[in-house]
Structures are given as structure tokens and as C-alpha cells.
Amino acid sequence: MSVETKKKIEVLDSTLRDGAQGEGISFSVQDKIHIVQALDELGVAYIEAGNPGSNPKDMEFFQKAHALKLNNSSIVAFGSTRRKDLNCAEDANLQSLLAADTETVVIFGKTWDFQATEILHATLEQNLEMISDTCRYLTEHDRKVIFDAEHFFTGYAANSDYAMKALKAAADGGASVLCLCETKGGCMLSDCQDIVTKVSEQYSSLCKIGIHTHNDSGLAVANSLIAVQAGATHVQGVLLGFGERTGNANLSTILADLQLKMGYDCIPEESLLNLTPLCRRVAEISNIPLDPGMPYVGDNAFAHKAGMHIDAVLKNPSAYEHISPDTVGNERVFLMSEVAGRSMIIEKIKKFDPSITKSSPVVADIVKEVKEKEHEGYQFEGADGSFELLVRKAIGKYQPFFNLRYYKTSGEIPLVEEGLYSFAQLKIEVDGNIKIAAGEGNGPVNALDNALRSALKPFYPAVENIKLTDYKVRVLDGKSATASRVRVLIESSDGVNSWSTMGVSCDVVEASWLALVDSFEYKLIKDIESKYHKFI
Predict the structure, then answer these.
(1) In the predicted model, is pLDDT for residue 281 greater than 60?
(2) Which of 118-122, 198-202, 281-285 has the weakest average pLDDT?
(3) Bridge partners, residue 288, by sequence
(4) What is the CA radius of gyration of the chain?
(5) Burial 206-236 (b: 16+ CB within 10 A, else e)
(6) How far is Cα 308 from Cα 340, in angstroms, rounded to an integer?
């Protein structure tokens, strides 16, 4: 399909509204502003930023949002139809929507007769009047109205005639989009396709038809795609799919599927090239880990582990990849493990020494060491940083940044101060200079981390930029109880790049120390190489 004939799909992102209802998600006003900027860079048409009438924080955001200069997106406010016993001018929620001063508003209303009578305690006719009155009132105040038909699919199954009347009430009131909300997330694909087709046949000449799905049956993305095929031209979702219960439709997947696989035009093509880094930015702001298995944008989306797969991909990536990773701003990853072959080893070594070939003795040495390490409990597929250091040591491209003389940790019960459980002391040597440092924290690893940072900072100020984003401990042999060998995985970031390092020991503190040292050294090596390449 040529660019000229691509059908345009209007995209609304609800990360800041529906996504904010997910467990563990709490956005500050500044968080919201940063996410708006990321979504604008992505190029979605609408950013649903919250309900200004629900809480002071959302209203504060809308007040500050006026100063934002957006290039691609429009911020929209979200609210409900008027209360059954109030006219629109008296309804505080509607007045808050007007005060938010957005060109477009999203209004949700009941389309399931059960919800109208049993939840709102309104008559069916009253509910229709609430929908039409609200849409008309807002359009008369120069607002474009997107009507979210809440529970539409459930309502259609229960009383299709009434559900369609609710849509007509919104259209009669001036709504420009009728968005069919699959609120409970239980609709099957065939039902979704049939219902959207019937709505499109009746209303697409009057309004755009939209789709808003939830993932309770694992079908949010699939239902969104099939709705587009059935006539929807407006799609709502959350960029990373999080939200209430099992989450919302994942827009990062929908965007890529629609634009790369189905020939629709959703966002600027150049923006799609930044899909992965923008998703990572939103995950960081949201303070959640990006699911490595997420399609297109996850760390494992283009990861290969089996030796035969890796060999084939090196010969021709299309052997096991459905698209090129750089199409969505991601990259190919070869996972190091006992089932990986020499081709993968060579591919990784070539980053540091292009002269290495399959027959080079060092390759066999590295393969042997990896297998021995994995037998001890290491798992390099999840520790890219530690694997890179292992390779560098084998090929002579490594020099330690410091030598440890000793470290020791201790705990204190009862607490000497709130939040301080442990203390650490260490002594290191850097280029003949001795440094002794101490640290305290809410555990021995935290205290040791603080002590190491304190010792290294005078020599390597960049360690201040290292942030530990995740810390995992896994017992490798439960039969030995508290004497079991453990594997510690640390994920770190400097705000731009992320990496993982690992340590294995029968002592959880020692395993943590090994992972910490790898993390710091990996960062320092990368900084040196970055400066070197900058000046050549």
C-alpha cells in the first residue's frame, strides 16, 4: 500500500488517565508533563491527561499544560456526563472540563441499560438525555467531543437497541467520535468484529468510530486491530498497556502492528523509529520495569539464544525476525548461554576486536569459561554487562579500576536511627592511592554500595550517575537451606543507558559485591570509550 493510499487512524493515548489507574502507578504533575512531551514526540493525535474535576493534582496539571509547546499532539480532558438531577450549567464536573480549556474533551456515558438503572439509578430515558445534553452543551462551548460509550459491548449483548440509542444520543448532541469501550475486557474477537461492523454501517457517515479495549481476556490488542478492520478509525490505549486490573490495550504493539503490518498511517514514520527509546523513557518516568517480553519494544523482542537460531540470524536476520529491529528503534541481542554457539561469541567479541575469527583460540577459551561459569550458577543471558567484562578480560581489553584490600559489613538491632540497619567499611587502592570509606544503609548491600561510591567518587566522579534500578536474588540450591548458593542480578542505569551485572556466591553479600563491582566497572569503561571515540 503506497503512502498516498494509507488510511489514517487517529490515536488517543490514555497513559495519564486510564493507565494511572494501574496498581503502583502514581504520577506527579512533573511526571505527567514529561510523559506528555514523550507522547508528543511519538506523534499520537490525542493525549488524555486526566479528569480535572476529580482531584487538585489533575487541575494543576491542566493549568501548567497551557505553557507546553506541542508539535503533534492535543491534550484532552476527561469527564462524565452531567448528573441526572442537574443541568449542565450547574454541574461542577462539566465546569471543570471547560476550565481545563482543552479544545477536545472526552465524555463517558452509560450505554448498558443495567448500568443506567442500577448504578446511576436513572431511568433509561434520563440517561439518554444526560448523554445528549452533555455533548450538546460542550459542543456549544466550542469543544470537540469524543464520546466514550462505556460498557458498550456488554450493553449491546444485553440490549442492542438501547446501546445503539445511546450512541445516537451522543451523535445528536454533536459528538464527533463514538468510541466503543470494551470496559470489562471479556469480549471475544468474533463478537467485537460483528458489533463494530454494525455500528460502523449505521454511524460512520455521521461520526468517527473508535475502539477502547481492556486486556482481561488477553485480547485487548487483537480486539483493537479487528475493530479497525471492521471500520474503526480512532483507537485508544495506553502506550505500555498498564492500567486497572490486567491493563489496557498496549499502544506500542497496536501502533507497530497497524503501521508496519496492516498498512495504516498512525504516527509519523520517523517517530516509529524512536518507539523503543520513547517506551523506555515512559517506563522510567512511570517507575516501572519495561517488560522484556513486550512485542517490538522489549529487551527480548529481538533476542536470540539457541546456537542454530543465532547462526541463521547472522546469515540472514529474516530467518527468525519478523521485522528489522531498527524499524522500531530496538536492537538485535544475542543471549549468552550454554546453548549458544561460536557464531554468537564471535559476534560479541567483534565489538571489541574485529580481527577475531571463528578459529581464534580465544573463542574456545571464552566458550569454555562461559560453560564453567553457568555451571557455577551464572546466567549471562540476563547479565550483558558481566558478560562483556568476561570477554574483555579474555581478549586483553580490560584493566581494573581499583583493587579491593578488604570490606566488612555489620548490622545493628535495635536500630540506632530510623532506616539504618547496617554499616559497611572498605579499603581500596586506585593507582597506588589508598582510600578507606564507610557507608550506612537499610541493609548490608545498600551500606556496601554507599561505601563503594564514597571511595570511588574522588577518582571517578561518574559513579554518582549510576542508579541501581533493580536488585534480584535467586537461591540456586534450596536443599542447602541458608547455606545455599545464590545468584544476584543488578540492573543499573546512568539515565541514558541501562545494563545488567551478576554475582554468584554462597554469601549473598559477596554475590552482591561481585555484581556491584561489575556494574561500576562497566559504566567506567563505557565512559572512557565514549570519550575516546569522540576525539577520533
Answers:
(1) yes
(2) 281-285
(3) none
(4) 28
(5) ebbbbbbbbbbbebbbbbbbbbbebbbbbbb
(6) 8
**Distance (Å, whole) CA 509 – CA 488:** 9
* Per-residue model confidence (pLDDT) at position 536: 37
Specify the amino acid at residue 186: G
Q: Is 495 exposed, middle or buried (0-12, 13-18, 19+ CB in 10 A)?
A: exposed
Give 87-144 pLDDT, tens digit per residue.
Answer: 999 999 999 999 999 999 999 999 999 999 999 999 999 999 999 999 999 999 999 9
- What's CA 205's distance to the chain center, in Å? 36
- Let me know: does 154 contact 112? Beta carbons within 8 Å: yes
Going by C-alpha positions, the residue among 139, 115, 140 that lies closest to residue 126 is: 115
CA distances from 256 to 4, 5, 123, 279 (A): 19, 18, 43, 12
Q: Do 460 and 433 form a contact (C-beta atoms < 8 A)?
A: no
Exposed, middle or buried by CB within 10 Å (0-12, 13-18, 19+), for 124?
Answer: middle
pTM of the shown model: 0.70
Residue 496 pLDDT: 79
Record the cell numbers describing residue 15, joined without a space.
497513559
